[in-house]
Amino acid sequence: MLERQKFSDSVAQQRAWVEIDHKALAHNIRALKSLLAPTTELLAVVKANAYGHGVIEVTKTVLENGATWLAIATLGEGIEIREAGITAPILVLGATNTAAELEAIAHWDLQPTLCTLEQQKLFQETMKKLGKTLPVHLEIDTGMSRLGTRWEGAVEFVEAVHTSENLEIASIYSHFATADEVDLTMTHLQHERFKTTLTEIGKLGIPLPKLHLCNSAGTMLGQEFHYDMVRPGIAIYGCYPAPHMENVVALKPVMQVKARITQVKTLPPDTGVSYGHRFVTSQKTKIAVVGIGYADGIPRCLSNNLKVFVNGQLAPQLGSVTMDQIMLDVSHIENVQAGDIVTLIGKEGGDRLTVDQWANQLGTISYEILCGFKPRLPRIHL
Ligand SMILES: *Cc1c(COP(=O)(O)O)cnc(C)c1O
Predict the structure, then answer these.
(1) DSSP string of 208-225?
(2) Measured in angstroms, how far is the CA atom of residue 234 from the centroid of ligand 1?
(3) Which of the following is catalytic: 23, 275, 284, 374?
(4) Measured from the CA of 45, which atom of ligand 1 is nearest?
């Protein structure tokens, strides 16, 4: 009998897939660690299925290569990691606003972010009922204007949690809004607000817990921002937060996206290709049909604007991207056959097709492209 698992894990059987290079992932963790003081910990942000890379496999590799903490966005993401038997400390970055969620967090040994006095009350009551003490991470909003108590009111907030029974402050953190920009004025201001808050907390005699501030961009700015731990996400996966940071540390792209040619044929001149005939041949054209489309995460907005590698050469994509398939112009490429593998994101020879190129074309960021590859594409871990 054909086992389902064997079928879905074998490249030989796939029409399209995502390849995850664990050597590159391990390299990136070690490269980022080399930027840190020996006592600074690395928390790997593995939310959103590890930015689309496959959370369980990624988590194992990052923990084996020097990461000591994990962070996810949702309760479900945390439970998935615990169910795989992974015991590393896990910070939940998203908000927790119900007793049921908090009980699950405590049950699964996850550590929540605490952002408001309302949550402080809820957390304290819930933990008292459970008769347990919960480590909590206090988020201070120093300028991101997302979760967290604004820095002006932070001292009272920290004091309230400090005096709460059944809650233990495991860390205090903040999050940068513009650390990837060339102009660091706002980043320095956020840092100043963080420092001022910490000084005031110290004056009250509250011992400072673990402190952390840096996403990938902040991590690349230098040790003065690092405190006890850094929280890189995108850099782990081999993408730079911004092009001007490329010289700070050598990262290797972790993800490649590949698909198979399913048919090759020759079209006469003046033949429309794909829905809406948004491409029409001007001469005799050899096309290859490829089994990947927008339901796999190939943005339809890239229609007529995408290039992929076929046998080491670039082939332009023709007409509209369809749900499950695209067509390529392979007139200039020899020996193209059904079954051949094409590379949409990745390296062939000395050249590379990158998620940043797609992001630039689409007016978005690499993060959205990485997270956009759908579960229908199996993740093949190499
Ligand atoms: C997502 C996230 C990170 C990681 O950000 P990158 O830019 O991917 O490095 C760090 N901290 C918080 C609070 C986040 O939400």
Answers:
(1) P-EEEEE-HHHHTT-GGG
(2) 8
(3) 275
(4) 4
* Cα–chain center distance at 336: 35
**Domain tally, the chain:** 2
The parent domain of residue 151 ranges over 23-236
Q: Which of 225, 245, 226 is nearest to 234 (CA)?
A: 245
Residue 9 lies in a domain: no
Nearest to 209 by CA among 140, 153, 148: 140
- Segment 239-250, tens digit of pLDDT: 999 999 999 999
- Percent of the chain at pLDDT above 90? 96
- Ligand 1 pocket, residue 137 CB under 6 Å: no
Ligand 1 atom with minimal separation from the 234 CA = 8
CA of 217 to the centre of ligand 1 (A): 9
pLDDT at residue 259 tops 60: yes
Taking only the tens place, the pLDDT of each residue in 195-208 is 999 999 999 999 99
Instruction: Indicate which atom in ligand 1 lies nearest the CA of residue 232.
Output: 9
Identify the CATH number of the domain in which residue 281 sits.
2.40.37.10
Specify whether 117 is located in the same domain as 156: yes
Identity (one letter) of the amino acid at 279?
F
Q: Check whether residue 42 and residue 181 sit in a common domain.
A: yes
Report the separation in Å between the CA atom of 216 and the middle of ligand 1, taken as the mean of its atom positions.
Answer: 7
pLDDT digits (tens, 9 = 90+) for 276-334: 999 999 999 999 999 999 999 999 999 999 999 999 999 999 999 999 999 999 999 99
Single-letter amino acid code for the residue at 262: T
Q: 349: burial class by Cβ within 10 Å (0-12, 13-18, 19+)?
A: exposed
- Give Cα 157 to chain centroid, integer Å: 30
> For residue 138, which of 150, 129, 126, 128 has the smallest C-alpha distance?
150
Confidence band (pLDDT; 50, 70, 90) for 10? low
51 is catalytic: no
CATH of residue 64:
3.20.20.10
With 90 as the cut, is the pLDDT of residue 43 above it? yes
Structure tokens at 86: 């992974």
